[in-house]
Amino acid sequence: MSVVLLVRLKITDLTAWTALEAGRKLLPPGHSLDRIVREQVILFEPESGARADAFEAPLADAVRHSNFFVNPNKESYRLLTAAERGETWTAPQGAWGIVARAREDTRDEGLRQRLLREHPLRGLGAIRQAKVWWLWTRGPEGGPAVETCAGALGILLGPGQGLLVNPHFEAALVLDGPMPWSRVESFLIEPAPEYRAAA
Question: What is the pTM of this model?
């Protein structure tokens, strides 16, 4: 089990606002996009044989009192410890999500080394980075119409189709209901599947 830090802007997120305006134009008739929120996902993975609770307390202190991860003037955060977060990751009320990670290794070894120089975190193996887009959508029947909206707003396939994920550089995971954290961790840790562009 790992520790997860979710960071979002308290001020207007211009990237999310631009995606909202562009995304509304991509949805088919009868579908709507009401809101988009973008969060940074930082996964703290224990080293082999260690447990995340070995470094949770000093990590929480580092998040509160340093600027490695959060600028308190413009960002808010949630630190989800292995014990507190439960077995599944659930989207905010009424939303669903698209988790996007780099196709290359998600580890940020430079950040880990800088952090450990100031905050010794015994048992920390890796810091991995991704982002999640939370989307509030509605289809003609009033439900979120996740499949249709994910096809229109998710992976960029060409003009007029896709927006939030560049498949040449990113892999994506749709979070359309409570998802086991083990699946999220595997998605962030294991190599991304090879991208095969359409012929």
Answer: 0.94
